[in-house]
Amino acid sequence: MSHHFLSTIPRVDDVSDAPDSSGRPGRPVSTAAVIVESAPNLDMNTVDDFRHAYRAAFDALTERGVTAGDVVVLDLTHTDFVSVDAARALAEAHDLAAHRGIEFALVAVTRGIERALTVTGGDRLLPCHRTVDAAIAYTGAQ
Q1: What is the pTM of this model?
Q2: Which is deepest, 40, 64, 96, 106, by most CB within 10 Å?
Q3: Is the Cβ–Cβ distance between 38 and 5 less than 8 Å?
């Protein structure tokens, strides 16, 4: 059975608070937030599709040119179970994002996800947020 992971790339044009070189406040900044939504279970049956989905998200940002503020959010809102292999995939996603200079955030609201991350030590590497908006705001504040 094939599992589908939805990946969207909304472009956001924002205005920076930092003055430009002439001292004028704000300049347009183009950023992208790529949201990768997960299946109800991340296990041996779905982890390869999941890896493919987040790698495709990183590739999409890398191909257009990574800019400050670009973020990939792994949205596990509808995921109830994460296997040990899937927890490793989450850590791999974090490392790949860092290697490519892309901000990375994780959305997880279920106890099963939090427990899996705690057991594997992923909770120290991957801070969890309750909503996609909170994850994007957190990465923007870094």
Answers
A1: 0.73
A2: 106
A3: yes
